[in-house]
């Protein structure tokens, strides 16, 4: 991805991030390190469940290929599958 495209993606993300339900929570809740803590993942997903900008967050994660953490109410595994479909849809519509 070129620097210019990456900058556009980041600029778009700035607006919705201020409205995100996760704002104010520690990053470590949404980006666990080490062993998988299912309770921590459930807590992060619960916070996402009440968020007004989940769609924007997920779109950002797919566009910028965020491979780790919880984004848009999805886990890393869920996003891998979604991103494959998202890329295929983009290729078809191009």
Description:
The protein is mostly helical and 94 residues long. The protein is 63% helix and 0% strand. The chain has helices spanning 3-17, 27-30, 38-49, 54-63, 76-93. Helix 1 (3-17) packs antiparallel against helix 4 (54-63) and helix 4 packs across helix 5.
- Overall 3D geometry? globular
Sequence stretches where pLDDT stays below 50 over 5 or more residues = none
Estimate the strand proportion.
under 5%
Query: Biggest β-sheet: count, sense, barrel?
Result: none
Number of helices: 5
What is the end-to-end distance?
Answer: 17 Å
* Run of helices and strands: HHHHH
Structural class of the helix and strand makeup? Answer: mainly alpha
Mean of the pLDDT scores? 87
Helix content: 55-70%
Cα Rg: 14 Å
Overall strand count: 0
